[in-house]
Amino acid sequence: MLKNINLPIALLAVGLLFALVIPMVLAPEGTAYVISIFYNIMTIDFPWALMLIAFLSAVFAIFIMFSKYGDIRLGGNGAKPHYKTFSWAAMNMCSAAGAGIFIFGMVEWMYYVKTPPFGVIPDSVQAYEYASAYGMFHWGFSAWAIYLPVSLALGYMFWNKKVDSLNLSDLCKSVLKGDSLPVRIIRKIIDGLVAFGYIGGLVCTVGLGTSILAELARYLLGFEVTFTLRIAVILIFCLFFILSTSKSIAKGISIISDFNVKLALGFFIFILLVGPTSFILNNFTMAVGTNIREFVHMSFNTDAIAQTGFVQQWTVFYWAWYLGCTISDGLWLARVSYGRTFREIAIVRCIWTTLACWLAFAILGNYGMHQELTGVLSLSQLVIDSGNNAAVLAVLKTLPLSSLAIVVYMAVVFITLACGATAASTVVATLTSKNLKNDEEPASWYKVFWAFLVLLLPVGILFLEHMVPGLNVLTTIQSVTTIMAIPLSAVIVLLLVTFYKTLRKDIRKKELYVDDINKDKWNSV
Fold this sequence. Notes:
The protein is an all-alpha fold. It is built from 22 helices and no strands.
C-alpha cells in the first residue's frame, strides 16, 4: 500500500503544510500579523525582480512563437497529441485562469476606481479608463508568459529526454549530479518544496471561490453564511474529487473542461445580448488600446516614488502568484501536451488564455461598470464596504432571469474550482510517489488523501477570517500566496538552467526533436 509512496518527500510536504495551518488554528491573530510582515517585506523589496521576470517572459514567448525553436515537438518527430485541440486548450485555460477569472473579472475594476494607479484622481473618468484596462494587463500576455519557460522545460525533459518521473529533482539530474548524502537531501527538499508550493497556488481561487459560492447559496436558498457552510462547500469539492478518481484524471478533466468552457461561453453571450452591448464592446476596445499604449509603463511600474501601494497590492501579488504556480501548472501542462510543439504551447498558453480572460473582463467587468455609471449600483463603494461577495451578488441580481444566471455562474465557478483541486491533488500525489511509469497515476486512495490535504490551507484562511475581526481576507490570501512563491524561485532557476544545458547539448549533437519537414532550418546549427 505504501510501496509507491516517497515517504521523505511526502512527510516534508505534509510537515510544511501543517506548520502553516496549525498556527492559523491555535494563534489566528498572531499568525495574521506574521503573515502581514512577510508580505510587506516581499512586496516592498522585490517588485523590480518580479517586473523583470514578467517582461522577459513575454519576450521569450514571442521568440518561441516566431523562431525555429517553436518547431520542437514534445515526443519528437511525428508524435501525435493525446487530446483534440479544443479539449487541450480548454484544460489549459481552466487550469491556468481557474475560477479567479470569474471573480476578479467581475470585481477587479471596482477596486481600481477608488485606488487608481499613476496618481490618477479616484472616481475620475481616467480612473474608470485605467480600471477597465489594468485588470486585462494582470490577466494578459505577460501573465501567462510567466508560465511558459517552466512548462516547456518540464515537457521537454519528461517527453523528449524520457525522464522516468515528474519529480523536479529527477528532471534536474544534469545539475544535481552524484549520489552523495548532501545531494540526496537537496533532492528531497526540492521535491518537498514543490509539492508544498503547488498547494499555495490554490489558496487564492479556492479561498475566494468558496466564499462566493456560499454567499450565492445563501441568496438562493435562504441559508445564513457561516464558517460551517463554507467548510461544507469545500467538502463538496472533495466529494466531487472522490467520484472522479474512478477514471483517468486527465480524461475526466478533459470532458468536464469542455463542458465548462461551453457553459461559460453561453453565460458570456447571454450577458452580452441582454446587457449594454454597445458599451461593453466600445469600452473593451478602448481598454485594449490602453493596454497597447501603456504596456511598457505597466510592465516596469514599481511605484518607487509615489508609493501608493497599488503595485504592491495588485501587480506584485499577481506576478508572485503566477510565479508560485509555474511549476505546478507546468507539471499539469506537461502531462497533457504530448505531441504539441513549443509554438502551439506558447500560442495556447499566452494568446488563447489571454483572449479567454479578456472576454471575461470585457463582459463581466463592463456589464458591472455600466450599472455603476448609469446609477443603478454603486459597486466601487460596495466592494470596499462589503467585499467581493456582495458585489458579485449585486451584479448578478440585475440580470434578467437573475436566479437562473446565478445558478449558471455558480456551476461555472464550482466546476472550475473542483477541476483545479482535482488536478492539484493528483499532481501532488504524483510528486510524492515513486516508481510510477510516465502515464501511470497514483492510487485512488492516495489522491483522495491529498485532496483533503490540498484544501487544508484554504480552510485555515477561512478560519482566520472567522476568528480575527476586521481581517482583510483578500490581502491575507494575497499574502499567503506570495509567501509560498518565495521558496520555489530557486527551484525554477535550477530547472531552467538544466533545460538550457540539455537543449544546447541536444542541438550540438543534432538530436533535434522536430518534424522532418522542419529539419532544414537547423542544418546551419
